[in-house]
Amino acid sequence: MSSFRLTTVEEFEAATDRLLETGAKVGADSWQMRVKNQTPHCKFGEEGICCRICSMGPCRITKKAPRGICGCDAHGIAGRNFLRFTAGGAATHSDHGREICHTLHTVAPDGNYKVKDAEKLIRIAKEWGVETEGRDIYELAHEMSELALMEYGKPFGVQRWLKRAPEHTQKLWHDAEIEPRAIDREVSTAMHMTHMGNSSKPEALVRQALRSGMSDGWGGSMCGTEFSDVMFGTPKPVDTEANLGVMKEDQVNIIVHGHDPSLSEMICEYADDPEMVALAKTMGANGINVAGVCCTSNEVAMRRGVPMAGNFLQQENVVLTGACEAIVVDVQCIFPALGPLSKCFHTKFITTSPIAQMPDSDFIRFNAETAGENAKKIVRTAVENFANRKQELVHIPQLKQKATVGYSVEAIVKTLDGVTNSQVDVLGTTKPLLECITSGVLRGAVAMVGCNNPRVRPDYAHIELMKKLIKNDIIVILSGCSAQAAARAGLMDKRAKDLCGAGLKRVCELADIPPVLHMGSCVDISRMMVLASELSKDSGLPISKLPVVGCAPEWMSEKAVSIGNYVVATGIDTFLGVDPQVSGSSEVTYWLTEGVRKWVEAAYTVEKDIEKLGDAMIARIEEKRAALGI
């Protein structure tokens, strides 16, 4: 077996520096340059105390002017900004889920999309009280699609998925009045509350921020995750590779980037089409290579083993290699900078969604009804572009690591079944994991999620925290760009068990898993809520008492705030490495870091020093263990 070592952040950075040299030759700018042009940042914005919600202002709070024109103070302004930020993230994630539900309505035995996990569809239908006996699976899929879409605008009741949570958690939500009603209603309510002349009470604004986040994690995101599994297959462990070295100099390189798997699944289908492969060979290429960036990458990696080129802040790097024929994007986290950058190379920047239209791009509209035709056109465009590649600009950094990805809740339970004593224990539960935690073989678990952020050293916090946690026998579950940081470093290689403490190393060997488990894209953090709920039910303990915490050390987007709110609302203490831009209000800070605990038994901790952040998580896990007497 070849010797194993992690790829360091310094190696990531050296590879980027070399690519930026190519960029300088062709006059391209980069996020690194743009960060310099934008700093120092506006202090009012950083502290959340500027308001432009009406046109009497904009207003900003100072000692000389402690109230805006309407009389709102720093606490009301920071609270409203925080709630609007949350609503933006909840709307974005939930709209992703809505698109998946619409796509589910198009499934047909001979259609672009099919039902790949009928068993899961039937299980969800039974959960929702829908008759399944003797039903045609496609007829059932269409009914479930319509029911799911009704969750977005139903006039009465709360989200169906809430019943998955333990009864204790459901009661907390009910008593705190944060059960999400219709998904769109919570976003609409947030926007209404923050309109000029409405709420300025921090407690009320933070409460609606939790509710709006909940409409994402226990509403729209859960729809997105569950029905993606139905159509594209529920992830199970699959081997892949990660980092820029997955791009191939002798092949057509198509990069898929964004979040919606409906597009990327089709691109993968047509990249394997013999007609397209033959066309690539006539163009002088040896084949077609699809690789991913951001959460679209997570989606196709965990279902197809498609390699992961990079995460959020690597999106420009794939173009800077000079070997990218097309970067094909759907929605969310896409740099408008990709347009002008692509024009410095031969790369086609192809946008596909009316929700994410950008200058300097080729717009090839993608929709579920014409998905095959659209995908084929996109692949053909990329293949024909191979002939325009400028060989003198080609440089692919030879950094690459192996990764095992695709640990859905179902896959984790199946893995645990493999280490269960079938003579004594019931299969299909999380009890083997709980036994490892109770015995102290594992100290606990951290759910690490989130983006990259130029305000901190990209990927450094993710990787250093993971190394620290696994060394202390804490298993890490990951999604989104933190998952790709782990994969690129080598922490999802099963051989990374050698970096663990003795207990976690033994678990990795017995279960044949890496020490950090890939659970999917950022929409799939809903899977983590289901896993926490199952652990709670199987242990008989409230979620808040489990030795489990959440962490987003490099978060940057509105979606991340929505996620943080639903993770905290589920009873999981959440640790942030970047300030949530409310520091200008002592009251909003209090509600987020202490006050919400009386509603949901969890709260936020903000710590920008990464070493101290890791220590704080470990201390919280040990405090929970001590409270349980384990």
UniProtKB/TrEMBL annotation:
Q: Which InterPro entries match?
A: CO_DH_a-bundle (IPR016101), CODH (IPR010047), HCP/CODH (IPR004137), Prismane-like_a/b-sand (IPR016099), Prismane-like_sf (IPR011254)
Q: Which cofactor does it need?
A: [4Fe-4S] cluster
The regions listed as transmembrane in this protein's record are none
Catalytic reactions of this protein = CO + 2 oxidized [2Fe-2S]-[ferredoxin] + H2O = 2 reduced [2Fe-2S]-[ferredoxin] + CO2 + 2 H(+)
Gene3D superfamilies hit by this protein: 1.20.1270.30, 3.40.50.2030
Extract the GO molecular function terms from the UniProt entry: anaerobic carbon-monoxide dehydrogenase activity
Q: Which UniProt keywords apply?
A: 4Fe-4S, Iron, Iron-sulfur, Metal-binding, Nickel, Oxidoreductase
Pfam families attached here? Prismane
Top-rank lineage group of the source organism = Bacteria
Reported EC number(s) for this entry are 1.2.7.4
Task: Supply the NCBIfam families for this chain.
Answer: CO_DH_cata (TIGR01702)
Stated name of the protein: Carbon monoxide dehydrogenase
> What is the source species?
Blautia celeris
